[in-house]
Design a protein that fits this description.
The complex is a heterodimer of chains A (about 350) and B (about 300). Chain A is of the alpha+beta class and about 350 residues long. Chain A has two domains: about 230 residues, Rossmann fold (3-Layer(aba) Sandwich); about 120 residues, RNA polymerase II/Efflux pump adaptor protein, barrel-sandwich hybrid domain (OB fold (Dihydrolipoamide Acetyltransferase, E2P), Beta Barrel). Chain A has nine helices and 20 strands. The model of chain A has no long low-confidence stretch (mean pLDDT about 90). Chain B has about 300 residues and is an all-alpha fold. Chain B has two domains: about 55 residues, no CATH class; about 210 residues, MetI-like fold, CATH 1.10.3720.10. In chain B, about 70% of the residues lie in helices and about 0% in strands. Chain B contains 13 helices and no strands. Chain B is flat. The relative contact order of chain B is 0.13. The C terminus of chain B is likely disordered. Classes of the chains: A alpha+beta (about 350), B mainly alpha (about 300). At the A-B interface, strand 6, helix 2 and helix 4 of A face helix 9 and helix 10 of B.
Chain lengths: ~350, ~300
């Protein structure tokens, strides 16, 4: 079932939490609301769940408007960050509660509970209480409680953030697998861009209550719509350099760096910011028209790569990711080579991508 | 030879000895009352006094529970002319049970609902109410016993067990409400929201999720309310004036009034008064310390 959000607004008193959110989540897709804390992503999820009033706008599930529907009439399931298991009920009762309040016959409840418990490999824990479970086990029970009812829409509010790093990676894959099995639309909230990139069909990047960009992981990574998205997505973060557009090239101090062909139409003399990911830069042997000279100020070994920080002026540093075998010494004078194809160009004033504009035009 | 373990062991022994002494000191009045209530009259005033009776008898309990004041009968000469306290003992016991359960029930129902409202709904003054209510509990009850008495006169409830029920609600409700409020605040709202999404109605959320989670709080508040109501003397003394409607605390004092104090009877009455509360405590303390709420959210 698809989810349509039309001009959604939310405010508490004078404080505006969400501004004109317009999104359509296609049926059976895994959609992630991604953004830093306080961006309104959880509020939006709670509005879809019916736990939060809508100040203005409308939410449709399929053709049905659900603005006024109570949570229990929306046929949704939600996994909370804190798991929110019923502490006095056993795992079996926790899993079956949703079916029980819907007056499902006991035999059917038992069957469904056992089936889901087997899938999640918690069938040996059915008679324990939440207090007797580990974090990962509780997480699975919370997931199971959501799965047991066959919801149309699956909502998840940072379900992995309380797990340790290793378990988180395992669960990421499992959640994705469950999504494919369940055949429901999933709306997933996270502040972790890696989670969003690895799991989603579509990502809505949010900041200050506004949707900054909505697209596939490839789109938000490869063609960020503005400076915020460019800086938020990708690790290590993108490098930004300020300068002006100078007849098809980017002037920064004495140097003039190349711009991608898409940037041809950008007005001469415009104040701009270019963004380049550390992975797209390299260290070159000699000075050239597509390189900036600088001095190595920090070298970090990441494992298979090295992150080299180069000071190209008194205040500007650039991170360059190179192979771990590369011999780079601290204080060494180097040249950072730019590839025109991987340069992103943004208007300094509006912070919007100038390449996106060019694409539209 | 003194080994490494000698001093730690001695320390533990000293600690246990101290604990035994304190426990004995705390329990002594109760043990003494129990011992006296089981002694025949001849042994009660024996010197030296005995902690463990040489011969035990249940005649005091029998007298209380069957309503017979034994020394008049055994004495022969001074046959009782008016009603005697022992005749009313079972009646007073029932009265005490009624007012205790009645006031506790009202206090718990009202305070649980009030606390739920204070923690889950937004309205003016909701953060101040619990503190004011606690302040109300700190005022000594002697201050409002007379205004309350005048109100009971107006309501024509004096010498009626209802007056005690309302009086006890007045002194227990504020604290119960504060206690339940503090408890409800610790119940994460997510578990209620999870139940709402699972398909429960507001009422089902309250009955299936909130109440069981709040049970330790409800038990703590009930114990508090029962102890206050059961042990009260002041309200019982002021509000009630017929022998039929007295509660145990006031009634037992009547064993003193007269020319003769029957210590065996008095002590048996005291023991019988203590037993319900002791049983209650033993039955419920498990719930008080159980790891409630744990595991509901990230632990």
């Amino acid at each position: 079932m698809d989810v349509k959000l039309q001009r959604i607004n939310k405010s508490f008193g004078n404080v505006s939490i969400l501004k004109d959110v317009d999104l359509v989540f296609p049926s059976r897709k895994f959609v992630t609301l991604l953004g830093p804390s306080g961006c309104g992503k959880t509020t939006l999820l709670r509005m879809i769940a019916g736990l939060e009033d809508i100040s203005a706008g409308s939410i449709h599930f399929g053709d049905r408007e659900v603005n006024k529907l109570a949570p229990r009439d929306r046929n949704i399931a939600m996994v909370f960050q804190s798991y929110a298991l019923y502490p006095q009920m056993t795992v079996r009762r926790n899993l079956g509660y949703g079916l029980r309040v819907r007056k499902t016959p006991e035999a059917e409840i038992d069957g469904a509970v056992v089936r889901v418990a087997r899938i999640l490999e918690i069938d040996h824990l059915l008679d324990r209480k939440p207090a007797q479970l580990s974090g990962g086990q509780r997480q699975r029970v919370a997931l199971g409680r959501a799965m047991v009812r066959k919801p149309d829409i699956f909502l998840m509010d940072e379900p992995l953030s309380n797990l340790d790093a290793k378990l988180r990676v395992t669960m990421r894959g499992e959640l994705r697998r469950f999504h494919l099995d369940l055949n429901a639309t999933t709306v997933y909230v996270t502040h972790d861009q890696l989670e969003a990139m690895t799991m989603s069909d579509l990502i809505a990047v949010m900041h200050k209550g506004v949707v900054q960009q909505f697209g596939t992981p490839e789109e938000v990574y490869g063609r960020p719509a503005n400076l915020f998205v460019a800086g938020f997505i990708g690790s290590p973060p993108m490098n930004f350099l300020e300068g002006t557009i100078d007849s098809g090239r980017f002037r920064i101090g004495e140097a003039a760096l190349p711009l991608p062909p898409l940037a041809d139409g950008i007005a001469h003399g415009l104040d701009a910011v270019i963004g380049v990911r550390p992975q797209d830069l390299n260290l070159v042997a000699s000075a050239g028209p597509n390189a900036l000279a600088g001095r190595v100020s920090l070298v970090e070994l990441l494992g298979s790569e090295k992150l080299v920080e180069v000071m190209v002026s008194d205040r500007t540093r650039i991170s360059v990711q190179v192979r771990a075998e590369s011999q780079v010494g601290l204080g060494e004078n180097v040249h950072v080579g730019f590839d025109a194809q991987s340069v992103h160009v943004f208007d300094k004033r509006t912070e919007q991508s100038l390449l996106a504009e060019a694409t539209k035009a | 030879m003194i080994t490494d373990k000698f001093w730690p062991a001695m320390k533990m022994a000293a600690l246990y000895l101290l604990l035994c002494i304190v426990t004995f000191a705390v329990c002594f009045p109760l043990i003494w009352a129990l011992s006296t209530s089981l002694k025949p009259k001849s042994e009660i005033f024996a010197t030296p006094p005995t902690l463990i009776p040489h011969s035990t008898t249940f005649e005091n309990y029998e007298a209380l529970l069957s309503g017979r004041q034994q020394y008049y009968q055994s004495g022969g000469a001074g046959q009782a002319t008016g009603p005697t306290p022992a005749q009313f003992f079972t009646r007073w016991f029932v009265n005490s049970v009624i007012v205790t359960l009645g006031s506790t029930l009202i206090s718990i129902v009202v305070s649980t609902l009030a606390a739920y409202s204070l923690t889950r709904f937004r309205y003016w003054g909701r953060s101040a109410i619990p503190y004011f209510s606690l302040l109300g509990y700190m005022v000594p009850s002697i201050i409002f016993v007379f205004p309350l008495f005048l109100m009971m006169v107006r309501l024509e409830l004096t010498d009626n067990l209802l007056s005690l029920v309302f009086g006890y609600v007045c002194i227990t409700l504020p604290f119960c409400m504060w206690l339940m409020w503090a408890f409800m605040r610790s119940i994460p709202i997510e578990i209620e929201e999870a139940a709402l999404i699972d398909g429960a109605s507001r009422y089902q959320v309250f009955a299936n999720v909130v109440l069981p989670t709040a049970l330790p709080g409800i038990i703590a508040a009930s114990i508090f309310s029962m102890i206050v109501s059961w042990n009260d003397y002041l309200f019982g003394r002021v509000f009630i004036n017929s022998l039929d409607n007295l509660t145990l605390t006031v009634g037992v004092m009547l064993f003193f009034e007269g020319t003769h104090v029957d210590w065996g009877l008095l002590m048996a009455a005291s023991v019988l008064m203590t037993v319900p509360m002791a049983i209650l405590f033993m039955a419920l303390q498990r719930h008080l310390v159980a790891g409630f709420g744990a595991g509901a959210v990230k632990g």
